[in-house]
Amino acid sequence: MNNPVIQITPLGFPWETSDPFLFCVHHEDFYPPGNDQMGPDVSLEGRNIGNDFNVKDGFRMYHGQTVPGFPAHPHRGFETVTIARKGMVDHSDSIGAAGRFGNGDVQWMTAGKGVQHSEMFPLLNKEADNPFELFQIWLNLPKAKKMADPHFAMLWKEDIPVYKHKDDQGLTTEIDVIAGEVENVKALDPAPDSWAADPKNEVAIWTIRMEANASWNLPKASKGVNRRLYLYKGASIKVGGKDVPNYCAVRLDPELGGLVENGDHESYLLLLQGRPIGEPVVQHGPFVMNTAQEIQNTMNVFQATQFGGWPWPSYDHVHPETRGRFARFADGTVVEK
User: Which residue ranges does the record assign to the Pirin C-terminal domain (predicted)?
Assistant: First the structure.
């Protein structure tokens, strides 16, 4: 019997992905209660403020000075899919869009021909800890779409389709279908210029929770599709009968599907899948194009235009402490949640 497992590798930072994805990062921090500035209500002494990626006392400040997160920075030529599993993210960008999202919400942003945005992590709870967990997935754009207009969309937790499977023991596997479909449970529409917008590309982004000892048959996909399954929290699992340790990635043969069997603890997994774009990739920091000359042109354009400038009071802009979840789009439309 053929086994679907091609390769098992330990997870590093960032996580290795396959075309059409560029990479995936998983941030998990255990922030203390917040202060009046929505930063951590503890001393930041001893940290490399502005470039704090080492876990100290359970958390990192990243590039944040006061509030953790990533102040304004540019992107061009790809998309970011940001899954905010715990805690809140404050988004602001150079096209005037903004939002506060978290606790299961997903933001899908097409950088296209160029955008600046900031992603700050306000600590809104002053009375208790502020646990935080986030995935950011970089999904490439094909050459024909790299200069698309920037686009910002929200997939709210309440609207994201969920697939639930009970095995013969009555144990549950639950999947948030962020892109693609599982057994006719279809995701919300992706960004219009995305590689994921064409169903023939079979792009799938699924976050998966398996009860202890649960089992589930991973559905098949087409030949040539790249598929990886990431076990990032929980017990060991078996895929097609092969043991997969915790905090490992599994590269899979999409045509074979495969039985996924969980161990003795609840497990959390991420699946990334898609037909490869198959074009040259030249990356320079936050810019992803097809040639070195395009990268140089991008740098020149950003220096000259700042991709529209920065309309917010500060590069680490956060929204008012009392503001709930919301999205303000570039056309002025506001959605409150």
Answer: 206-308
Residue 147: CB partners within 8 Å, gap ≥ 6?
112, 113
Model confidence at 1, in pLDDT bands (50, 70, 90)?
low
CB burial class (10 A; 0-12, 13-18, 19+) of residue 228? buried
| Cα-based distances in Å from 90 to 71, 84, 109, 122, 309 | 10, 11, 14, 7, 18
Contact criterion met (CB below 8 Å) for 73 and 59: no
Contacts of range 283-288, beta carbons closer than 8 Å, 24 or more positions apart: 283/22, 286/73, 286/74, 286/75, 286/76, 287/74, 287/75, 287/76, 287/77, 288/22, 288/76, 288/77, 288/78, 288/138, 288/140, 288/141
pLDDT, tens digit (0-9, with 9 covering 90-100), for 196-211: 999 999 999 999 999 9
The CATH architecture that domain 21-47+58-156 belongs to is Sandwich (2.60)
- Please tell us whether the domain made up of 1-14+160-278 is placed in CATH 2.60.120.10: yes
Encode pLDDT of 85-114 as tens digits.
999 999 999 999 999 999 999 999 999 999
